[in-house]
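Marked as duplicate of an earlier ticket. Keeping the data here for the record.
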Amino acid sequence: MTLGFSGAAGLGNELRSHLLRGEELIWQGGPATSATFTSADAFFIPFSICWLSLACFWEADAARSGVVFAEIWGVPFIAFGLYVLAGRFVYKRFQHRHTAYGVTQYRAMIVTPRSFRDLPLRGVSLTVERSRDGRRVSMIVSTPEPDRLYGFLGRRRPSQAAYARYANTGMEPLMRSAQFPFAFYDVEDSQGLLGALDHLRFPSAD
């Protein structure tokens, strides 16, 4: 599935294709493409600069030594550093342009080029985060998770909360096995979204 929408009409068409019989959209939107940084970048940006500096130093030293294996060994580390420093912002902008959020009278929906997620939100704990300038809002769902063990040592499987810090940072392609929380990120229509969520979660209040 390819999402080629750039406006409200395209958003609505993609979301309506997933509606059930008798279901109606009460809000639709998507993440702002202008939203670039998150609080996690306070760690990722200095980390990527240090990583890339060390990788380039290694590569330069390997080139001077003439050891081909050492030169080849350093290339993936440089590529990783470049992605964390700059490439992930390109990915994040593309992902924001091709993500649709929707709220119906029964559930919330997220549509991307390769996935569709939906979740009933009645009785579910939500965390609402506002951007520093107050122009955007993010909604993150806190869902209970089973206490699972894996591996012969019985180590605990990382929860969604453990991966939440990496969500909406552009690091997602490097963490394909991660279970990210259900969330709407960087929505500019904060009043519309929050009103629709209240309508969905507390219908008797209308």
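See parent ticket for discussion. Residues 68-97 form the longest helix (30 residues).
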